[in-house]
Design brief:
158 residues; alpha+beta; Lipocalin
Length: 158
Amino acid sequence: MIQGCATLALSRRARALLAAFVVLVSAAPLSSCGGSSSGASDPAAEVARANERLKGRWVLVGFRPDVALEPMLGQLLAFQIGRLTVDVDGARMFATGVGVQATRTYRIVEVDGDRLKLTLYDESGVPYDVRGELSGDLFRFEARTSPWNGSGVLQRSR
């Protein structure tokens, strides 16, 4: 019974972490909004442009963890590829996938041309960090918060 409860709690936590992770990494496409990497532009203006660029729907199309996930988390992640969507409204991110539904706030930490650093906050205020680079409709990212350390790709939904 205790083991079953621990598994259920891990499952809920795993779903919450996955949703936070996907929402976090989806913010990176912001950086393609035309900002300059020369340092001559206003950082607040670049963040505002990035926020505007981020608005819309994104789909998780791939993720490779740095360290193999335990089987339950690995299976949960596999179900999300091509299915999990992240809708961004300029202040929050809403992730919806197979057994995953979450809303997170976020903050753009830095914009440098097509590169972005972002921090997403879960409902308890725990931060999740990501870095990435936009290439067309794809965002290739590195998630830097356990247990989702790894690299992945988001694609803008049409």
